[in-house]
Amino acid sequence: MTGQLVRYLAVGASNTAVTLAAYALLVRAGVPAVAASVVGFGAGAVNGYRLNRAWTFRTAPRGPRAGARYVAVLVAGLAINALGVAIAVDVAELPRLAGEIAALPLATATTFLLARSWVFEAGGRPGRRAAVPRPR
Fold it and tell me: Can you give the pTM of this predicted structure?
């Protein structure tokens, strides 16, 4: 599991890079900031799904069901992070950046565990290899 977590964090870093690069390019091209943010986030999410499926969890699940589960995990992570920031900033009165830093570990751990056990479940069990269809 430790190797998976390290790969998951590396994929997360690449998602951030893809998101920010897409956002910067779109804003520079004149796209409004909110629209650029949505498209950039989507680009990062697609990057994350593909890399997590192929590299982090090494599984074969594809299609609408796996994609929908991945989106649900992203939304859950977003909600957990937003709630954590709200509590850290509004209740604990931490500075905004400190609030984000405080909220991030729980959101990351939760999305990792959900991705491992629910989205990419075939690769989440030690000693099992993902069922990859063989040519006939």
Answer: 0.76
Contacts of 56 (CB under 8 A, 6+ apart): 4, 7, 8, 11, 115, 120, 123
The pLDDT-based confidence of 100 (bands split at 50, 70, 90) is confident
Neighbours of 86 (CB within 10 A): 12
Lookup result for tokens 């990859």: 132
Q: Is the pLDDT of residue 125 over 60?
A: no
Task: Name 119's Cβ contacts closer than 8 Å, sequence gap at least 6.
Answer: 52, 61, 66, 69, 70, 73
Judge whether residue 51 has pLDDT over 60: yes
Tell me the residue type at 93. E
Buried b (16+ CB within 10 A) or exposed e, 4-39: beebbeebbeebeebbeebbeebeeeebeeeebbeb
